[in-house]
Automatic annotation (TrEMBL):
<feature type="domain" description="MGS-like">
    <location>
        <begin position="6"/>
        <end position="153"/>
    </location>
</feature>
<dbReference type="GO" id="GO:0005829">
    <property type="term" value="C:cytosol"/>
</dbReference>
<feature type="active site" description="Proton donor/acceptor">
    <location>
        <position position="71"/>
    </location>
</feature>
<feature type="binding site">
    <location>
        <position position="19"/>
    </location>
    <ligand>
        <name>substrate</name>
    </ligand>
</feature>
<dbReference type="GO" id="GO:0008929">
    <property type="term" value="F:methylglyoxal synthase activity"/>
</dbReference>
<feature type="binding site">
    <location>
        <begin position="45"/>
        <end position="48"/>
    </location>
    <ligand>
        <name>substrate</name>
    </ligand>
</feature>
<feature type="binding site">
    <location>
        <position position="98"/>
    </location>
    <ligand>
        <name>substrate</name>
    </ligand>
</feature>
<dbReference type="InterPro" id="IPR036914">
    <property type="entry name" value="MGS-like_dom_sf"/>
</dbReference>
<feature type="binding site">
    <location>
        <position position="23"/>
    </location>
    <ligand>
        <name>substrate</name>
    </ligand>
</feature>
<dbReference type="Pfam" id="PF02142">
    <property type="entry name" value="MGS"/>
</dbReference>
<feature type="binding site">
    <location>
        <begin position="65"/>
        <end position="66"/>
    </location>
    <ligand>
        <name>substrate</name>
    </ligand>
</feature>
<comment type="similarity">
    <text>Belongs to the methylglyoxal synthase family.</text>
</comment>
<comment type="function">
    <text>Catalyzes the formation of methylglyoxal from dihydroxyacetone phosphate.</text>
</comment>
<dbReference type="InterPro" id="IPR011607">
    <property type="entry name" value="MGS-like_dom"/>
</dbReference>
<protein>
    <recommendedName>
        <fullName>Methylglyoxal synthase</fullName>
        <ecNumber>4.2.3.3</ecNumber>
    </recommendedName>
</protein>
<dbReference type="InterPro" id="IPR004363">
    <property type="entry name" value="Methylgl_synth"/>
</dbReference>
<dbReference type="InterPro" id="IPR018148">
    <property type="entry name" value="Methylglyoxal_synth_AS"/>
</dbReference>
Length: 153
């Protein structure tokens, strides 16, 4: 696993995740967008990261496999402000034993206002946005009230 590179103001930290039956779709999408992706810092879970790194010949910061904790690692990176975009090709037709992890990852991305693409069409729209190449000040929610609340005894 390589270390995360320092960022320029317009460089995004893009997380790439795909379930087994969607890895081929993500790889095809990533090949098509290879040059653009190379301008950013890529983070991926387990096998997806290995495949992308080998096929695209660009560095990918690899986490654990999703079911082995990679989804939680990615969620922690989102909560810490270390991910700017989540591209997650998940399979709505395949039952997954780690479904709660998947829901938690999508939930935390929404909580922290991270753009999410869940299929090729939404990834095309998101990645073709001029905001991908620009400095973008994402509105980060203020959860001070939530974190400082007291629990009645």
């Amino acid at each position: 696993m390589d270390t995360l590179r320092p960022l320029t103001p317009a460089t995004k930290r893009i997380a790439l995740v795909a379930h087994d039956h969607k890895k081929k779709d993500l790889l095809e999408w990533a090949r098509f967008n290879r040059d653009g992706l190379a301008e950013h810092q890529l983070v991926a879970t387990g096998t997806t990261g290995r495949i992308l790194e080998e096929e695209l010949d660009i560095p990918v910061h690899r986490l654990q496999s999703g079911p082995l904790g990679g989804d939680q690692q990615l969620g922690a990176m989102i909560a810490n402000g270390d991910i700017d975009v989540l591209i997650f090709f998940w399979d709505p037709l395949e039952p997954m034993p780690h479904d709660p992890d998947v829901k938690a990852l999508l939930r935390i991305a929404v909580v922290w206002n991270i753009p999410i693409a869940c299929n090729r069409a939404s990834a095309d729209y998101l990645f073709s946005s001029p905001l991908v190449e620009a400095t973008y000040d994402r509105r980060v929610p203020d959860f001070t009230e939530h974190s400082e609340r007291s629990v009645a005894a």
